[in-house]
């Protein structure tokens, strides 16, 4: 797709933007801005996947995560947030617990990275054909024993229930007043 220099340039561009936006998600004081930074992180990771030559997986990343889950998260934030939600200041105890958890996660990630042998695989052996894409689509939409339509529908109902629950919790008046 690209020659080595351009692919390397795009890799570093997407990696740097992913790191910067991830810091925006974690360090942002406003919930809506953090959610928008999360969209950028997922878009940058889709760009990294695209640079690696896996166009189908990058498209799925954009459709499922950015197009579905994060947009639902944004709707939930917009519909349920009050003014005090947008600027949260966690207590010192929460900051300490969060710092310990983040440090532990970072240590485990580095340990796995250093102790894993990453074999090189040729891109030709991983090519996806037109028939493979159709087979994946049929499998995702199949209601037979080996299909995945039921888990997707259950997850969509769970997300809908969570959204409705968030709206009910954020109501400014009691349901008896209606």
Automatic annotation (TrEMBL):
First-tier enzyme category under EC: translocase
Alphabetic keyword roster: Cell membrane, Membrane, NAD, Quinone, Transmembrane, Transmembrane helix, Ubiquinone
Catalyses which reaction(s): a quinone + NADH + 5 H(+)(in) = a quinol + NAD(+) + 4 H(+)(out)
GO molecular function: NADH dehydrogenase (ubiquinone) activity; quinone binding
Main location: membrane
Pfam family, one: Oxidored_q3
Membrane spanning residue stretches: 6-28, 35-54, 60-80, 92-114, 148-170
Any single Gene Ontology cellular-component annotation: plasma membrane
Subcellular location: Cell membrane
Recorded topology in the membrane: Multi-pass membrane protein
InterPro entries given in the database record: NADH_UbQ/plastoQ_OxRdtase_su6 (IPR001457), Nuo/plastoQ_OxRdtase_6_NuoJ (IPR042106)
Keyword Transmembrane helix applies: yes
EC number annotated for this UniProt entry: 7.1.1.-
Function field: NDH-1 shuttles electrons from NADH, via FMN and iron-sulfur (Fe-S) centers, to quinones in the respiratory chain. Couples the redox reaction to proton translocation (for every two electrons transferred, four hydrogen ions are translocated across the cytoplasmic membrane), and thus conserves the redox energy in a proton gradient.
Protein family: Belongs to the complex I subunit 6 family.
Protein name: NADH-quinone oxidoreductase subunit J
Source organism of this protein record: Stieleria neptunia
